[in-house]
Recover the amino acids of this structure.
């Protein structure tokens, strides 16, 4: 029963009777400093297309060897991905995507007039040999570590091999790092180099999904110029007040990120252990805030969980992983516990009769 056509059915939905393991949006508030600027903020004219100079300057401090002019501030990572793909789609080519993937990637590639090509992750991890084979004839590749929806983190060695191979072949590496600060297993390794185009956002690290502030970083001057040109004739500048809130967040003490990471770890343990106790088959989460357990007939399971148990989950099929459900654990502990109780109920009732 495909009565839930896609993520748009759930995005923004929420009432007190629902437990939403759906949308990937942090429930922690942004740093206090981000709100403080609102008391005096009064600039509502068009802003610079590339982004406010103060924010570009602050961003450059985050990436060793970068300059303010290497960045473009965008409407979230979403606009960043869209602009990068549409700019590199001249000439049109193939883009290599991991499977499972973030559900927008194939759409973004199609909207840019390009063709997605897939390689399968193994338990959420890149097998470099499989990657290398699949890369043949592609003009770009998307990397997302930590990943939505797998919750896995790629090995540093693999990421370095990818950097080297793509540099040799002249392939763009679009590194979607929106979960770079939510990583449990090690320090993050940020892909870098002349072919790397970094995409990031204030949505996840700073709990600012609705503000729509993200950015692109690349040392390729022509690429940055082309992105600015395209943005000039599409969205124009990114919300200026959003940018100033993002700037205040970026300048706030890093203890905000460390504190939130502790909260994420507690939730991850609760979720992972809870799912194991339910007998579900899943990978151990290494970053981001998702788990992707196996479920027979995932489309039906999502529908039953929603209609009968008031639990929102996302069908793995939307991420190229049918037979799995994605659960986001961006919700407080009490809700996670209640959600797991409802999943247990579902497993003992409707799910028990699935063939
Ligand atoms: C992997 C990945 N990339 C990009 C985005 C879009 O983020 P933004 O809110 O910055 O547009 C998301 C949001 O869930 C995501 O999970």
């Amino acid at each position: 029963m495909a009565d839930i056509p896609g993520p748009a059915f759930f995005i923004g939905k929420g009432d007190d009777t629902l437990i939403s393991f759906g949308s990937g949006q942090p429930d922690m508030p942004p740093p206090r400093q981000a709100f403080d600027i609102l008391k005096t903020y009064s600039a509502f004219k068009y802003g610079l297309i590339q982004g406010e100079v103060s924010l570009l300057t602050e961003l450059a401090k985050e990436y060793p060897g970068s300059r303010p002019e290497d960045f473009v501030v965008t409407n979230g990572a979403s606009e960043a991905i869209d602009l990068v793909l549409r700019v590199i789609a001249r000439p049109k080519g193939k883009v290599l995507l991991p499977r499972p993937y973030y559900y927008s990637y194939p759409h973004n590639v199609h909207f840019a007039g390009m063709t997605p090509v897939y390689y399968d992750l193994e338990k959420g991890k890149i097998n470099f040999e499989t990657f290398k084979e699949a890369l043949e004839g592609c003009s770009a590749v998307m990397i997302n570590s930590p990943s939505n929806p797998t919750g896995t983190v790629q090995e540093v060695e693999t990421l370095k091999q990818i950097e080297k191979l793509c540099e040799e072949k002249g392939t763009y590496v679009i590194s979607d790092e929106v979960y770079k600060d939510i990583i449990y297993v090690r320090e993050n390794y940020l892909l870098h180099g002349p072919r790397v185009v970094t995409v990031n956002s204030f949505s996840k690290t700073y709990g600012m999904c609705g503000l729509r502030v993200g950015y692109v970083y690349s040392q390729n001057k022509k690429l940055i110029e082309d992105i600015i040109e395209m943005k000039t004739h599409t969205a124009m500048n990114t919300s200026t007040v959003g940018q100033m809130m993002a700037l205040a967040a970026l300048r706030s003490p890093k203890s905000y990120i460390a504190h939130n990471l502790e909260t994420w770890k507690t939730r991850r343990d609760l979720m992972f252990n809870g799912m194991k106790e339910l007998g579900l088959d899943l990978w151990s989460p290494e970053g981001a805030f998702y788990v992707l357990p196996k479920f027979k007939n995932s489309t039906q399971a999502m529908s039953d969980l929603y209609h009968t148990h008031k639990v929102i989950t996302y069908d793995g099929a939307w991420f190229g992983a049918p037979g799995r459900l994605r659960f986001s654990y961006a919700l407080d502990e009490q809700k996670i516990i209640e959600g797991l109780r409802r999943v247990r109920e579902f497993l003992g009732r409707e799910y028990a009769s699935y063939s």
Observations:
- DSSP finds eleven helices and twelve strands in the chain.
- The pocket of pyridoxal-5'-phosphate is lined by residues 24, 76-78, 102, 144, 148, 176, 178, 201, 203, 209, 214 (CB under 6 Å).
- The chain has two domains: 7-24+255-353, 32-251.
- The radius of gyration is 20 Å.
